Description:
heterodimer, A: mainly alpha, MetI-like fold, 2 domains, 14 helices, B: alpha+beta, Rossmann fold, CATH 2.40.50.140, 6-stranded mixed β-sheet, 5-stranded antiparallel β-sheet, 9 helices, 19 strands
Amino acid sequence: MDTNAKRIVVWLILIGFGIWVLFTLFPLYFMIITALKPVEEINRMVPTFWPETFRPDNFRGIFADPGSLKSLIDSVIVASANTALSLFLGTLAGYALARYLTGVVGENLAFFILSNRMFPPVAILIPMFFLFDATPWGTDSYWSLIILYLVFNMPLATWLMMVFFRDTPRELEEAAYLDGYTPLRAFFKVTLPLVFPGMVSVAMLCWIFAWNEYLFANLLTGTTVKTFPVHIPSFAAGSQTLWNFVMAFSLVAMLPPVILFIALRRYMVRGLSLGVVKG
Amino acid sequence: MARVTLDRVNKIYGYGPSAVHAVEDLSLEIEDGEFAAILGPSGCGKTSTLRMIVGLEEITSGTVAFDGEPMNARAPEQRNVAMAFESYALYPNFNVAQNLAFPLEVKGVDASERQRRVERIAGLLQIGELMGRRPRELSGGQQQRVSLGRALIREPAVFILDEVLSHLDAHLKFQMLFELKRIHQELERTMVYVTHDQMEALALADRVAVMSNARLQQFGDRDALYDRPANRFVADFIGEPPTNFLDATVVHDGGAPLLHVLGSDLRFAVDGERAAAIEAAQLDRVTLGIRPQNLTWNTDGDTAVVGATVDFNEYLGEHTILTLRDGGALFRAIVPPNVDAGEGARVELHYRTRNVMVFHPETDEFLG
Lengths: 279, 368
């Protein structure tokens, strides 16, 4: 290929990427401008792509409802507690699978655990409702969501942690035993620091799942406990949907995961590439 | 410091029909302060053996004792053993100094003493300038030294070194062999060195335990392994190039038996001791073994002679390896580099009758 043809191909690829970037960023852009528009401007038949009137007050308006702040707090509680539990159980289970259940039994057990993530969540929706209804705290509580989300997050955490542990050499622990560490101490002091970036990634994945989950939260909870995805429809009360409030609130709800992501990105990259490059 | 005793130690992995008998009835006594090597091809059970000594592997049956005290029930951290791993097993998030100090820190040695001993070991292994680096910033040879250093920094009952030189290039290996020998002399502690490389084992160890197929074949010093190998396996495994084995019939020519190699005109004489052993076993067929080094080009008079045709001449600089043929029998001899022995030439080689080894043709045991 001569240089001219090459240049054209490069440009075509760049244009292709450009279109793709526009395609993915446009919804975010539209969210932001909608959040800043007054509601009359939103309902116009020809939508404006730049707000004629800026209404940053929308962001204050959404918190006029005390339920808004509470829903964010509820989401933080559910997502964080579930993540802590998933990570704790997943790390221990993953370690056991990686180190002690290495045969056929372990392989099958590990696959069974992962397979829990493969069915469509809606399949267990109704049974779960009755199950949690029978618990002393009922369906509408922090505990129901914290425990229910384990169904999805613990298999993920277990599986990923198992893979991370398998990639850490066993000899390191053995060396630590010989140097005088007990197995428990070797686990905490030698092995865990090595998989720490992996744990951060797993925590992030679990947290985001629990943060965004709508289906189960909507069915099981909604009065005592109300996570933010369940709270959003309250802006659509009555005949009119306050799209500017929906978008403003969604933007606020996007902040925690985005901030976490940015703060932990160093670990995320290392964690997600654990096992890819052997150190 | 400790005397390490293994008494009928067995290791079986798995259960039922899929069980693997990795170590079978192994009895071994390593003296206090001795440098012992466990040598064998991969899969012979040597790694399982050493893992049972240090406590990383459960002992299926039998006893491992240090100074007569059984260790079976003790966890590795209670056995006071130090080990250098084949894979180095350096803690990746510690730097070299922290890695070296780790075993002392665990034991609660105070900081100034730690510092002193780290410096001493760093001097011994010449890794002083690497102290601040992380393991991944080190070359294989450097990691090896640090790993050795971490094992040597304590004063354990027993040092275990698992294939520690196998990843080093030849030059560094020779240097480290010398270092290890020197370290052993300096520390005067029991060391067990595990390797598949006979050169390392023979160069380092006072005595070598040769293992094959989960069993101990022989435990002895260099001379014993070379001159009185317990069986054909040991004779074959020890020595480079390996011993020549030839099937022979026993011919009684007057008084002393002669070994007539099957399918050829080769005849080897044996000394009185071996002749007696053959007589005692009442065998008319044996396997004859003779090391290539013991078939010499020159003679000082006190030797017997065999003649053969040169099949192949490998000039290796320091010496030449001749592959020789007579009829259907093939064997090798090491001769000086400059000999005039082109392919197809008829040559005569000399040997001492006491260097002819005789093995039982079926059991492969050493007869004399």
